[in-house]
Design brief:
By secondary structure, the chain is an alpha/beta fold. The chain has one domain: Zn peptidases (Aminopeptidase), CATH 3.40.630.10. The chain is built from eight helices and ten strands. GO terms for molecular function: carboxypeptidase activity; metalloexopeptidase activity.
């Protein structure tokens, strides 16, 4: 909740704004303090309209954090959350909540020994119909995405940061992605929404449902592509979303820390840590 209050306290974090850059710099410092290597991925976004408000063209950044020695050509997982907001909202739930779980999951994992280079996929039950194995002790890439919020209608005017990240991956790095989870609006409600992007691509969703069951967290399954996991799935990579419970303050100036349920943030963090092994 301290992270949520810090980010929402900056006010709206539209992707090309100075406030977004302030949030990015603060988050970068937190990852560095936890022992991560970080890099900024720069991208350009067009002018448009974001939830009824005109937004200018400009520069934004993804923030990518990895443990020292990470090799992107070897099997790994990706956990992401978008750092930007629509222009009129301080974005406590959308999406300081997701960034908070992203950061504190990374800090939790930093206290554990890094996976050994010889560690690979470990079979583990992933629930009925999963059709695969879940990843245990794989390295993780943590990403705060820029410009997730729309700048117009349609998939190609949305999710700019995650689309840029996926497009930048060489073929060997794409093949190494074993799963991606987008943390988006994760602080409202009492049950964890676990969403696939399509009815056909459900492997990561089923892994998350199994991870939640292992730690006793209640869930509901859903299909939802309006977050950064869709950029991965549409490129043929496995992905899913945690979060998406409706709330009255959505995309408004009332999206403040008091709309969040701290226990829900805790449940989300438990699911992610369980999934990561």
């Amino acid at each position: 909740m301290a992270t949520v209050r810090r980010l929402a306290g900056l006010g709206p974090r539209e992707a090309t704004s100075t406030t977004y850059l302030q949030a990015l710099t603060w988050l970068e410092q937190r990852f560095v303090a936890a022992g991560y290597q970080v890099r900024r991925q720069k991208l350009q976004v067009p002018a448009g309209e974001s939830w009824g408000v005109p937004v200018r063209a400009g520069t934004t950044w993804n923030l990518i954090a990895t443990r020292p020695g990470f090799d992107a050509a070897k099997p790994h997982l990706v956990v992401g959350a978008h750092l930007d907001t629509v222009p009129q909202a301080p974005g406590a739930e959308d999406n300081a909540s997701g960034v908070a779980v992203l950061l504190h999951t990374a800090q939790t994992l930093a206290l554990r020994p890094a996976p050994l280079p010889t560690e690979t996929m470990v079979p583990r039950p992933t629930g009925a119909g999963a059709g695969g194995v879940s990843a245990a002790r794989l390295p993780t890439v943590f990403i705060a995405f820029g410009a997730e919020e729309p700048r117009g209608d349609g998939d190609n005017r949305h999710h700019y940061g995650s689309r840029a990240y996926v497009a930048s991956l060489p073929a060997a790095h794409r093949r190494a992605v074993r799963g991606m989870v987008s943390l988006d609006r994760v602080g409202v409600g009492n049950v964890v929404p676990v969403c696939s992007a399509t009815d056909a691509q459900v492997t990561t969703r089923n892994e998350l449902l199994a991870a939640a069951a292992r730690v006793g967290v209640p869930t509901r399954s859903c299909v939802n592509r309006s977050s950064d996991h869709w950029s991965f799935v549409r490129a043929g990579l496995p992905g899913a979303r945690l979060g998406s419970t409706p709330y009255a303050a959505y995309h408004s100036a009332r999206d403040l820390p008091n709309v969040l349920n701290p226990a829900q943030l805790d449940r989300m963090g438990k699911v992610v840590v369980s999934w990561l092994g």
